[in-house]
From TrEMBL:
GO biological process: trehalose catabolic process
Protein name: Glucoamylase (Glucan-1,4-alpha-glucosidase), GH15 family
UniProt GO molecular function: trehalase activity
InterPro entries documented for this protein: 6-hairpin_glycosidase_sf (IPR008928), 6hp_glycosidase-like_sf (IPR012341), GH15-like (IPR011613), Trehalase-like_N (IPR045582)
Top-rank lineage group of the source organism: Bacteria
Organism: Micromonospora halophytica
Length: 615
């Protein structure tokens, strides 16, 4: 049987990798070595690619939730004869707390099965498949531990449940009664590094994961609007962080389709500079400045010295640049959606918007960069010079078009952002001649966008220069300060984009986009808030916040007609969009409140009388 819907999955994380478990209790995705490593459970993409299920036999209903302030998942199955709970967690290093969680995770997965009421017949099916389902391992039961070995990979499953080993599968049928507990710990290790898989006690593993996540949550106190949604999204973003480096991956999966049966199926288990300043803003708003500081440090290390060469747009979690794409032809793909890809050839593209992302992030972090190190100064100077040189060139745009390069408006706007922030930095990153040169280029970019990006017939800024095609990416214009949201042309653009590209609050990127793109929808919330339409913005936020799955998770896109989540999952960009939109709403509400307070203040005796009479 194929794994359930994308949105049926819960997300487990340990600071190195992620696992996805569906509503039936089946773990359908786990790449234990690191986020972009080979899967040992890949049922999400093909039933033959491995899974590990624990669930009741026969009919049942399901309720599930994360334990408060954690990424530890508890699923409760109710059957006619009893109630059963399964608690799942990826292990954190024992005793790790706060910002240390995930740095040295032991690569182990714990599952605790508890009988809550009556008795429930349970089936366990353990079916590991290495190298994305290409390798079926030998299973050896050595008294409470089932060893699976093949190639360079080893999994060890420790349990107090007798398992029957077959040809690549291990199964068990048990009856769990009220008050009984069954425990499972699955550990991973490379065969040739000399180490054994870690197999901590499952109860202790779960308890330590709960304590670790709660200690992290306790360090972060967000005081704005929609705190529950922001808190959950911040934890998801933290779960998408590869802790040894501090890099945040775009998603935990590869090749989940934008359209069922379609071929736009990409590997998102990497780090995009396109998302960089938005990520730092989200971390900042969610009261995670330490993570923001680590993110900026990671990027400066990963980029190395930038002179006249092309700026890479994405990296592996440890700073790798070559992310060459290849197809796994043996997998049928999610819902038959081929190809299944590992790697992403977008790493070869030119996307000039990344220049603005980095300089905008540096401006946000400017107080943390004082005094500025020579390498950061050189980096920011070089990126500003690249914006001067490259803003007139076409590129692949933020949606990473794989056909022809174009003069995308959003790319030009982000070149303006790069130059604007460089001018603001002034002599901290350049001499007076540099700053003057950047200012001239900044003004030239702005003039070009205002003339060639505007379409009189549509009454909107379009996706590319001299184009008739709308694109939701232009909504970044107010968000980076290029043009106020209340400017007549920007207001018109917002109205046209919403009218033509939105359905039930979900905004597509362009006409023909198969589904609403979650972060674009949140950009519209931010634009409306900045334009002073606070009630409308808050209603739209509420519509979008209700589109999460039952665990508060977003994929990349949502089909407005069916409500189906599509694309890689969970998607950091979507959760970052929610956090930043909540921040925009909070700032707009505070401005409105301050304005109202000023208007309510009594005029001091003898002051302002002439002005009052004149009014």
């Amino acid at each position: 049987m194929r794994s359930g819907r994308i949105s049926d999955h819960g997300f487990l994380a340990d600071g190195r990798s992620a696992a996805l478990v569906d509503r039936t209790g089946s773990i359908n995705w786990w790449c234990p070595s690191r986020f972009d490593g080979p899967a040992v459970f890949g049922r999400l993409l093909d039933d033959r690619a491995g899974h590990w299920s624990i669930g009741p036999e026969g009919g049942h209903t399901v309720e599930r939730s994360y334990l408060e302030d954690t990424l530890v998942l508890r699923t409760v199955f109710t059957t006619p004869d009893g109630v059963l709970a399964v608690t799942d967690a990826l292990a954190l290093e024992p005793g790790a707390r706060g910002h240390d969680i995930g740095l040295r995770s032991p690569r182990a997965l714990g599952r605790v099965v508890e009988g809550l009421h009556g008795e429930v017949p349970v089936r366990v099916h353990y079916r590991p498949r290495f190298e994305y389902g290409q390798v079926s391992p030998y299973l050896i039961d050595s008294g409470g531990v089932v060893d699976a070995r093949a190639g360079g990979c080893r999994l060890s499953l420790r349990t107090d449940v007798p398992m029957e080993c077959g040809r690549g599968d291990a199964t068990a049928r048990i009856t769990v009664r009220a008050g009984e507990t069954c425990r499972f710990t699955l550990g991973y290790a490379p065969i040739y590094d000399g180490g054994e898989p870690a197999l901590p006690d499952a109860d202790r593993l779960v308890a330590d994961a709960v304590a670790g996540w709660r200690s992290w949550a306790g360090l972060h106190e967000y005081r704005g609007l929609h705190p529950g949604a922001v808190r959950r999204s911040a934890m998801v973003v933290q779960g998408m962080t590869y802790q040894p480096s501090g890099a945040i991956v775009a998603a935990a999966t590869t090749s989940l389709p934008e359209r069922l049966g379609g071929d736009r199926n990409y590997d998102y288990r990497f780090v995009w500079l396109r998302d960089f300043s938005l990520t730092l803003q989200a971390l900042w708003l969610a009261a995670c400045p330490d993570e923001a500081d680590r993110q900026f440090s990671w990027v400066t290390r990963a980029m190395g010295r930038i002179d006249d060469g092309r700026v890479p747009i994405m990296y592996g979690v440890e700073g790798e640049r070559d992310l060459s794409e290849h197809t796994l032809d043996h997998l049928v793909g999610y819902a038959g959606s081929r190809p299944v890809n590992v790697g992403n050839d977008a790493w070869k593209q030119r996307q000039t918007d990344v220049l603005g992302e980095i300089l905008d992030a540096a401006w946000l972090m400017r107080h943390y960069l004082d005094p500025m190190s020579p390498d950061v100064r050189h980096l920011l100077h070089a990126l500003a010079d690249q914006a001067v040189r490259d803003w007139r060139r076409p590129d692949s745009g933020m949606w990473e078009a794989r056909d022809a390069e174009r003069h995308y408006v959003s790319s030009k706007v982000q070149c303006w952002t790069a130059l604007d922030r460089a001018v603001r930095f002034g002599d901290r990153i350049g001499d007076p001649a540099d700053v003057a040169r950047w200012a001239v280029a900044r003004d030239a970019v702005r003039a070009a966008v205002l003339t060639r990006g505007w379409n009189d017939r549509l009454g909107a800024y379009t996706g590319a220069f001299d184009s008739d095609e709308l694109d939701a990416s232009v909504l970044i214009m107010p968000l980076v300060g290029f043009l106020p949201a209340g400017h007549p042309r920007m207001r018109s653009t917002m109205d046209v984009v919403e009218r033509e590209l939105s359905r039930d609050g979900l905004l597509r990127r362009w006409d023909g986009d198969p589904a609403g793109f979650v972060i674009c929808s949140f950009w519209l919330v931010g634009c409306l808030a900045q334009a002073g339409e606070l009630d409308r913005a808050d209603r739209l936020f509420g519509q979008l916040a209700a589109r999460v799955n039952d665990l508060g998770l977003y994929a990349e896109q949502i089909d407005a007609a069916t409500g189906e989540q599509l694309g890689n999952f969970p998607q950091a960009f979507s959760h970052i969009g929610l956090i930043n939109a909540a921040g925009c709403l909070t700032e707009a509400a505070e401005r409105a409140r301050d304005t109202a307070d000023r208007h309510r203040q009594p005029v001091p005796t003898g002051a302002g009388r002439t002005e009052g009479v004149r009014a």
